[in-house]
Amino acid sequence: MIPSVVTTLAVEFPRQSIFSGVMQGLTYGVIAIGLILIYRSTQVFNFAIVEMGTFAAALMARLVINWGVDYWVALVACLIVGALLGAAIELIVVRRLFRSPRVVLFVATIGVAQLLLFFQFVLPKFDTYSSFPTAFTLDKPWHVLGLDIQSAQVLVLAIVPLLAIALTIFLNHTKYGMAIRASAANPDAARLSSISPKRMSTIVWTVAGFLAALSMILTIPLTSSTTTDTITVGPGVLLRAIVAALIGSMRSMPRALVGGVAIGVTEAILYYNYPSQVGLLDGVLFVAVLVILLVSGRRDRDTEHVDNWSFSPRVRPVPANLQGFWIVRNLPRLGTAFALFAAVAFPFVVTHPSQQLLFSRVLIYALLTLSLTVLTGWAGQLSLGQFALAGAGAFGTAALMRDGFTFGEALVVVTVIGMIGALVIGAPALRLRGLFLAVATLAFGIAAASWLFPRPFLLPGGLSVQVHRGELLGIDLTSQRTYYFLCLVVLAAAIFFVVQLRRSGVGRSFIAVRDNEQAAAGLALSPVRAKLTAFVIAGGLATLAGGLLAGLLVEFAPERFGPNETLSSLSIVAMAVIGGLSSIPGAVLGALWVVGIPSLAPSSPEVALFTSGAGLLILLLYFPAGLVQVLYSARDLLFGWLGRKLPPAAEAPRAPVATGKRLTPRRAAPVDAAVALEVRGLTVRFGKRVVVDHVDLRVAAHETVGLIGANGAGKTTLMNAVGGFLPSQGAVILEGRDVSRASPPRRAALGLGRSFQHARLFADLTVRETIAVALESGAHAGPLAVGLTLPRARRFERAKRAQAEEIVAFLGLGGYADRFINELSTGTRRIVELACLVAVEPRVMCLDEPTAGIAQRETEAFGPLILRVREELHASLLVIEHDMPLVMGISDRIYCLEAGRVISEGTPEWVRRDQAVIASYLGTDEQAIARSGAV
User: Fold this and answer.
1) Residue-level pLDDT at 5
2) Where are the domains of the chain?
């Protein structure tokens, strides 16, 4: 007889539980495959994939139970519905937002998920409630090898392996499958091969919809005994699928399938051995997510990855001819004063305690939304665990008050603890590009609700906890009106804090990292540090809001902060997007919209939908900047109309021209080194392909070295490796210091300046703000000092403003100082990029095609400007350039690359006469050779 239970280290491994876990895990693996397909196609975690499947499953149950449709006919029909649903989502939502930031597409899938739940709600009710349909029923389970096999498990055994084989054949051996893989690997190269990435995206979403429908139709009979009108499997299934996809590194479908099986088996074993430990698996998965992200070594090879945040609402400068009017200059202050007056007057006009309680909730959720304004709107990172952080703040406040802390002391302590918790959660996730923080915080939210909050140290002796507000600074908080004013004061203080952050180098750094991570790193800003700082601040705001919510609720249970709670983290995201993702007033507007309006019609699902899922999608598709976009647009129209009625204040700015002024050095004198930059045996590989092959290069102190070669020769790759933006072998020596293992920000801080080929910089910052970002590489104040406006922080800000104005004047950018970067011509952006290098004061400047995209007349003026900047900084220069007269005219020596190897090195006269250079790069055309100066 085969033993049914194996015991190891006091943990039992029953064969039946393991088998059931394998069956359940296979369905997780199928969902994970759908996630991987979409992620590789669009770089988006599809948070709607489970709801896509549950809608098809709900329709399947009604076809069989209500209308008596044959199981197999209903199955085929619902699989087609799932596929069509995936295609519709891609065509209606994804394609319209194709060029939007990935975080916007991510948020859009959240809106789609909520919309699909509503569609389930409007499906016909069940005539009778029975088990979810299966292909056949068994009088008793099949008994095979000591295992009891149910009918639902038979389907999983029969279908999933065949599905995996079919997908492998489709992707590896069919025209469309290979086109999908090519499009995911390199969209630009796919376009050159007449492959449409958008068409491939539609196919991928169609396949993912098919897989989602199949997986949920298979998995629901394994977990549910009877059907309900609305099938909600909860975010736990999505988390299991995401962890399986992470095990597959978001690339390998076989590994993801195996990962799903491992999760299913682990779930079954834990449930068998610890049936009372509800949520234990969720805690294990949370730890697993952190470990996977921590050990992951993936890096994005796109060294100029730039996210388009054009949806961000902009407060444009007041026209110059209106700045003399007091009411125009002070319009933001007047608006703030009016809003504050209305908030203060409200509890005296509306005296009923229930209404005061309602709007206290609005204020608390505005504080929660404000945390996402900092994190997502400014730093470009999405958290799906803000409500769980609020729950931690609520339970932490109750626990501290049981230990003798006053309410005010507990609020301060949980805020600090929340910041530390955010540091622990964010540190692994923010090492990687993309939306991995959302995955980590989703895992935390589910684990906190199901495992952490019910722990005895947070929930002693009962099913709920109570909070007695007591007094704060001698003020009795028992009255609901008094507590409303406390929430208002805290929200006002938090808004003041984040306003100071946004006006400072801290806020500018967040925006810079969000808009262009590589350019920020090239200016000695650490993207990881900036994103982690934003998450720590957001975590503190969220836990503070949770502490206030604990005092408002007075008594609450763990379910109050569960992932299925109506006002969960997904609704917090909806508030931020509906109000205006990067707008501080938008946080308040979003809370009013999502929390305030539904309270006026609490029994209306349509109102709830419009203020969450449907409203979210509509705003993303048609008003991407949120409700504040309407206010800002009206303001700009009014100012534009008034500005046209008055005479212009000044002429349009002329092209920037460098002045004769000298710059005041900020840093110590350069290191006395004969060689500023030396590269030894530098090699860069992309997989098996060698792009840079054992290159040796040297730039002497105060020398200008040109780097030329045909497109694809490896010039930019070499410069990226020198800057630390690509992994490489060999040595990079900067002024005698080996920086081969240093990060890009560290190399920049040590004196290695870097400009990029496309000069995109930071689209949502003005010229003055962009130069101020570069000045952050010097002395600066921390976020706490800035938010509290301490004297030290004010002193640093004044110094940076003065230095920025000096650089603006030096390069003749005064007429453009308040223009947004993406409003500038390419030539002006190039000069702004030089201004940033002047601000950083590098020892070595690495310029990648500094004249690309600008007119010939501007190119001729650019060479002397580059040399002027080099002289001011006492720096050395390594420049990639295709304009031969320019590079030959400014360079002391030149290297020519071909296929990643140096084929010539020497003075400009030597290189332009070298036959190898003529054959490889200049060609045999006499005019091209003459233009380079070779005669």
Assistant:
1) 65
2) 26-234, 361-637, 675-764+822-932, 768-819
CA neighbor of 322 nearest in space, from 645, 724, 655, 765? 645
Which string of DSSP letters, residue by residue, matches 270-302?
A: HHHH-TT-TTHHHHHHHHHHHHHHHH-------
Spatial separation of the C-alpha atoms in residues 13 and 7, rounded to whole Å: 6
Which residues in 119-154 are b (16+ Cβ under 10 Å) and which e? ebeebeebeeeeebbbeeeeeeeeeeeebebbebbb
**pTM of model > 0.90:** no
Question: Would you state the structure tokens that stand for residue 214, as one six-digit string?
Answer: 């199949």
3-state secondary structure 220-276: HHHHCCCCCCCCCCCHHHHHHHHHHHHHCCCCCHHHHHHHHHHHHHHHHHHHHHCCC
Q: Tens of pLDDT along 168-180?
A: 888 878 888 888 8
Between CA 509 and CA 379 the distance in angstroms is 8
Of the CA atoms within 13 Å of residue 521, those in its CB half-sphere come to: 23
d(CA 449, CA 441) in angstroms, rounded, equals: 12
Among 284, 258, 256, smallest CA distance to 271 is for: 284
Instruction: State the DSSP H helix or E strand holding residue 893, giving kind and residue range, or none if neither.
Output: strand 893-898
Question: What sign has the CA pseudo-torsion 792, 793, 798, 801?
Answer: positive
Task: Indicate left, alpha or beta for 781 from its phi (over 0: left) and psi (-120 to 50: alpha).
Answer: beta
State the Cα–Cα distance between residues 46 and 40, nearest whole angstrom: 11
SS3 101: coil
φ/ψ (deg, to 5) at 690: -90, 115
Q: Which residues of the chain have pLDDT under 50?
A: 1-2, 298-304, 668, 924-926, 929, 933-935
**Superfamily of domain 675-764+822-932 in the CATH hierarchy:** P-loop containing nucleotide triphosphate hydrolases (3.40.50.300)
pLDDT of 179 reads 82
Give the Cα-Cα-Cα angle 133, 269, 2 (nearest 5 degrees). 90
Rounded distance between C-alpha atoms, residue 745 and residue 809, angstroms:
27
Q: Which residues, listed in sequence order, are joined to residue 6 by a DSSP beta bridge?
A: 13
**In sequence order, what E strands does 142-239 have?**
142-144, 147-149
C-alpha separations of 203 from 166, 189, 368 in Å: 15, 19, 38
CA dist., res. 15 & res. 4, Å (int): 5
The angle formed by the CA atoms of residues 332, 336 and 342, to the nearest 5 degrees, is 145
Spatial separation of the C-alpha atoms in residues 155 and 113, rounded to whole Å: 27
Q: What is the DSSP string of 110-125?
A: HHHHHHHHHHHHHSPP
- Measured between alpha carbons, how far is residue 420 from residues 424, 533, 750 in Å? 6, 11, 30
Beta bridge partners, 690, equal 685
Residues 39, 33: Cα–Cα separation, whole Å: 10
> Which of 319, 382, 390, 431 minimizes the C-alpha distance to 743?
431
The hierarchical CATH code for the domain 361-637 is 1.10.3470
Amino acid symbol at 418: G
Which residues fall within 8 angstroms of residue 106, CB to CB, at 6 or more apart?
44, 45, 47, 382, 435, 438
Taking alpha carbons only, the member of 565, 592, 595, 590 closest to residue 575 is 590
Please name which of 522, 513, 530 lies closest in space to residue 309, comparing C-alpha atoms.
Answer: 513
For residues 566 and 365, what is the distance between their CA atoms, to the nearest angstrom? Answer: 13
The b/e string for 365-374 (b: 16+ C-beta within 10 A; e otherwise) is bbbbbbbbbb
Measured in residues, the chain has a length of: 935
Q: Single out the residue of 739, 762, 758, 732 nearest to residue 836, CA to CA.
A: 762
Show the tokens assigned to 28: 């997780």
Query: Is 163 in a helix, a strand, or coil?
Result: helix
Burial class of residue 346 in the structure, from the number of CB atoms within 10 Å of its CB (0-12 exposed, 13-18 middle, 19+ buried):
middle
